[in-house]
Amino acid sequence: MRIATFNVNGVNGRLDLLLRWLAATKPDVVCLQELKAPQERFPHAALEKAGYGAIWHGQKAWNGVAILARGQTPLETRRGLPGDPDDVQSRYIEAVIDGIVVGCLYAPNGNPAPSPKFDYKLRWFDRFRSYAADLIELDLPVVLAGDFNVMPTDLDVYAPDRWRDDALFRPEVREAFAGLVNDGWIDAVRHLHPSERIYTFWKYLRNAFGRNAGLRIDHFLVSPALADEVVAAGVDREVRGWPRTSDHAPVWLRLR
Q1: Where are the chain's structural domains?
Q2: Is 219 a catalytic residue?
Q3: Phi/psi at 31 (nearest 5 deg)?
Q4: Which is the catalytic residue, given 28, 57, 147, 219?
Q5: Cα separation of 180 and 212, whole Å?
Q6: Tell me: the pLDDT tens digits for 101-149?
Q7: Is 34 known as a binding-site position?
Q8: Cis-peptide into 112, omega within 30 deg
Q9: Is 147 known to be catalytic?
Q10: Is 119 annotated as a binding residue?
Q11: 2-255: which CATH topology?
């Protein structure tokens, strides 16, 4: 099984790019983030024509997450994180596909820090870690994939000293991610590539992609039940070089 995650940065505006990538790589499962589309404007018909069933949690203008499955419709198991009934931002959706629980997430950016936005980011991570701990206790095969908006270590950012005060690299955020790993989740890409500089995001400014001035902020966390099943992981880096593309590249892993 090939599972991918892709912050598409506008699913309708970049639908042709998404369909081109799906046709070229044929992932079995795809987690999409930053749909920037209300529920009624998600392009499910075009995706069905391309061979993918979908569930999605849209939101006007910002946020939004979706899960696609090739040749089937994902069985939805959760929409939104527990712990705050007043949180209406579309940042988490979950489904079962071929016996695997797949959670798709789009964590808050949190900038500027400190600020109320940064406080919300930390609260969101607390809720996410609490729910993820419940999933671990079930001893099921689980993949949590998406844009975590965190660079876990200095190895995950092209110029660490320039990012120390950014909400994606603040100690509190890196500690939140490390807490997930300490709870038993496995950072699949880093597990397979422990010392390699791998980036998944490059800003549009100052030729960041051409200079490879990137960040690794899109991640896969896999549960202990899948630890021995992850056999490969990587980044479809070339997609970031396509015209009118997202500032993220798709990231993928392959399960045995």
Answers
A1: 2-255
A2: no
A3: -105, 125
A4: 147
A5: 28
A6: 999 999 999 999 999 999 999 999 999 999 999 999 999 999 999 999 9
A7: yes
A8: yes
A9: yes
A10: no
A11: Deoxyribonuclease I; Chain A (3.60.10)
